[in-house]
Amino acid sequence: MKAAILVIALFISGPLLAAGQAPELSYAQHIVSDSNGSQIEATRAKLRLKRLRIIENNLPLQQTQWQSFWQTYGDYMVSMDQLDDRVWQLINDYAEAHNNDSVDDEMALTLIKQQQQIQQDRLALRNLFTHRYLDVITPRQLARFYQLERRMDALLSISMAQQIPLIP
Length: 168
Hints:
81% of the residues lie in helices and 0% in strands. By secondary structure, the chain is mostly helical.
């Protein structure tokens, strides 16, 4: 399962990344310091950095918006990372139960509830940050930013869904 997740991450990361340099911000430092050396954490760190570069290369910002946007984005991604930690834990819990052939009705219901709660929390977080972003970028820029976010999320979700086995 972990190998499949690594393949997913590497598969997705290649076609999305356009050339460019990541902005200097505290989140980039968080990416490096957050990686504890494990293969999964290293892959997550690479995905975070590539995500940052995709945003940088596809969201035109005025010079006056640059620093404030990236500071807000850094805060946003730290919060999103906390949700992603829950997603990875959910995947690991499912993988362990699947490998042990112990996915019963109770486990399935728990997985459903956790996944739905993560989705609700992700939407609530985006709603919260919408107001912060609108303090530093225009509504059109924010719409484009969320389009980019949703596209990256969709590609990752599709690839993960293809790799994670269905409940027997």
